[in-house]
Amino acid sequence: MSAPPRPKEPLRPQALLAQAARDAARRHTPTGLGLDSAAMRQRMVARLRAEGAGCEPVWQAMAEVPRHRFVDSALAAQAYEDTSLPIGFGQTISKPSVVARMLEWLFLGTTARASGHLGRVLEIGTGCGYQTALLAALARQVVSIERVQGLHDAARRHLTAQAVLHSRLLYADGMAGHAPSAPYDSIIAAAGGDDVPEAWLTQLAVGGRLVAPARAPGGGQVLVVVDRTAEGLRRSLGEAVQFVPLKSGRI
Ligand code: SAH
């Protein structure tokens, strides 16, 4: 897919404040990597660029957000490899190339393409909060839902430490979406069920786009992209993927 345009307003006051707080944290806290983590991120982004996974705003965000701060310190050295990593509770953080591609697809939605940002976002599956931090840099507003209390708490700690200010974390079953903040310009899920839940489609704004894994017609999982147009829903299938299962209820 061709790269979508860069955001028209890349330097929002909230983003600047958050960046200043991150810079301050970086000056005073050892990375635990023994290497310059910014340089490791730049190398990760260079690989993603070479592969064509992602687009300019996504690469900018990935160059900023310290992925190693969202995983166990024992895994920090692997944080900038293109690999998924365990985050506890039997869950995993997706590999950077998959995250980059899913965010790029969101940018190809009608509203995102026109505005250069992801608008109001619903994320299902906060996990450790890494993707939430990227979304916060790319969107006006982020609502993120997690069904595992331990992960919801960990994500809150990680995002607070990184001074990610404008994301709202909910401990709830994301199958129902979050109607009070709907409609959403972008909806993204990091866990896949048999199909995309009806509630998510209902909560998608006109001009909005949803990207989520779901069961493939022939077995396995595939990324599903749904656009809401004035005429209704338009659905297409992307690449084969392997995400953790979408489960109901909270634990
Ligand atoms: N993007 C996350 C990836 C987390 S893995 C990150 O950056 O870390 C997917 C997450 O989806 C898991 O944490 C899992 O607990 C969560 N999940 C699965 N079913 C869910 C549901 N019904 N509602 C909310 N979260 C769910």
Structural overview:
By secondary structure, the chain is α/β, with parallel strands linked by helices. It contains 8 helices and 11 strands. The chain has one domain (about 15-240): Vaccinia Virus protein VP39 (Rossmann fold). The strands form 3 sheets. The protein has a 7-stranded mixed beta sheet with strand order 5-4-3-6-8-9-10. It has a two-stranded antiparallel ribbon with strand order 1-2. A two-stranded parallel ribbon has the order 7-11. A hairpin with a 2-residue loop joins strand 9 (about 220-230) and strand 10. It is globular and about 50 Å long. The protein starts with 12 loop residues before the first helix and ends in a 6-residue tail after the last strand. Mean pLDDT is about 90; it is low at about 1-15 and about 25-30. S-adenosyl-L-homocysteine (SAH) binds next to strand 2, helix 6 and strand 4.
Q: Total strand count, please?
A: 11
Main sheet attributes: strand count, strand direction, barrel closure: 7 strands, mixed
| Helical proportion, percent range | 25-40%
> Average pLDDT, to the nearest integer?
89
Please give the domain count. Answer: 1
The hetero molecules present are: S-adenosyl-L-homocysteine
Q: Regarding CATH, which class?
A: Alpha Beta
Structural class: alpha/beta
How much of the sequence lies in strands comes to 25-35%
Ranges where pLDDT stays below 50 over 5 or more residues in a row are 1-13, 27-31
Report the CATH topology name: Rossmann fold
How large is the radius of gyration? 17 Å
Shape, per Cα inertia axes? globular
What is the rounded distance between the termini? 38 Å
Order of helices and strands: HHHEEHHEHEHEEEHEEEE
At the fourth level of CATH, the homologous superfamily is Vaccinia Virus protein VP39
Q: In which order are the strands of the major sheet placed? A: 5-4-3-6-8-9-10
CATH architecture: 3-Layer(aba) Sandwich
Q: Count of helical segments? A: 8
